[in-house]
Amino acid sequence: MPLSVSDTADHVYAHGLRNQWHPVVPSHFVARGGLRKVTALGENWLLFRKADGTLSMLADRCPHRGAPLSLGKHLGDRVACWYHGVEVDGSGTVTSVPGLPGCNLEGKTLVTSLPVREVGGAILAYFGDDEHPEPADLTLPEPLTDPAVSAFLCYAEWNVPWRYAMENLLDPMHGAFLHHESHTMYDGDTQAKFRIRETERGYFFEKTDQRGVNFDWVELCRTGVDWVDLSIPYPPSAGPGGPFGIVGMACPVDAERTGVFFWRYRRVDDWRRDTWRFLYKTLIEVRHWQVLEQDRVMLEAMPADADQHENLYQHDLGVVRLRRLYQGQAAQQSKAAPQS
Questions:
Q1: Residues 105 and 59 in one domain
Q2: Beta pairing class for 35-40 and 43-49
Q3: DSSP secondary structure string, 128-168?
Q4: Which of 85, 102, 127 is the last residue of a domain?
Q5: 12 located within any domain
Q6: What are the pLDDT digits (tens) for 4-37?
Q7: Which terms are listed as keywords in the entry (predicted)?
Q8: For a tag site, which of 106, 282, 328, 334 has the least CB within 10 Å?
C-alpha cells in the first residue's frame, strides 16, 4: 500500500523500507487452493494460491465494506468475501457482486495486488509506493539458484524489531561469545580488528587478521532484496562438501516482530550431496536451531530502545554502516510520501 502523510522517517524505519522486495513467509505456508493471512511491513495481506500453484498477494481488505478477504471462500481462481460474497481475483479485480449483478464495482481493480516471486522455498513480494509502483529489478542470491548448491530453509518469527535481526547478522564478533559452545564457533581468537570493504552490491564487514576459522566475515547484498551471505568452515565430522554457508533475510512483520529466513547451504555434488543432506537432517539441524535460539533469546531480551543507549567501538562498524544506510533511505521515502 502507498506511503501516507503519517509515514514519518521513524515510522518507515520501524516498519520496513519500501521500493524493494522482502521475504514474506515460506512457500509451504500456502498450499495449492489455499488462503493465508500474513502481516508484513505492519499491514495485513492475503496470500492466495490457485489449484495450479499460481500465487497472488492481495491487501486483506474487501473493496465493498473492508472485511478481511482471508476469512472468505476460495473459488479456484478468485476469493469470495464471507461478509457479502463479493468476488475478487488474483489481480485485485472485482469479478462479481452476487447481491447486485452488474454493479459498477464489477470489472474494477480495487484491491492492492503485490508482485510476488518464489525462490528457495520462500515467497518474496515487492512493496512499492506511489512513485515506484513497478517492481524493482531483482537478482536472487546465487546460492539459492545455483544447482550445484544444496540448501535448507529455516524460518522463525522473533519478537524483535527487524533492524535488530539485520544488525545481528552484521556483527560477526558475537559468534565468538554468544555461540562459543557451538561445534562451528568454538575455535578462533576472541579479539579482532575489522574493516569495511565496499562492493558493487553492498559491502563486506570482515576481520583483518583471521579468515576461515569461524564467523569471520559477512557480506550485505542489496540486489532488489536485502540479504547477507556468510561462510563458516566445517569440521570433517560434518560430512563432505565445502564450507557451510548461510544466506539470511528478514521480513519486518511489524514494528516489534520479525520473520527471519536462514538458508543453510553447501556446495556438494553426486553422492556427497545425499550424504550432506542426510547428515544435516539427522544430526546437524538440531544444533543449528540451538544457535538460532541463542540469537532469539538475546535479541528478545534487549529493550526496544537499546540502540538509543549504546557505547559503540570498532567492532560495530558494520552495524553503524547499516544504520546510516537504512535511516537515510527511510528519510528519503518519508519525504516522498504524498502531502495533504
A1: yes
A2: antiparallel
A3: --TT--SPPP----HHHH-TTEEEEEEEEEESS-HHHHHHH
A4: 127
A5: no
A6: 445 799 999 999 999 999 999 999 999 999 999 9
A7: 2Fe-2S, Dioxygenase, Iron, Iron-sulfur, Metal-binding, Oxidoreductase
A8: 282
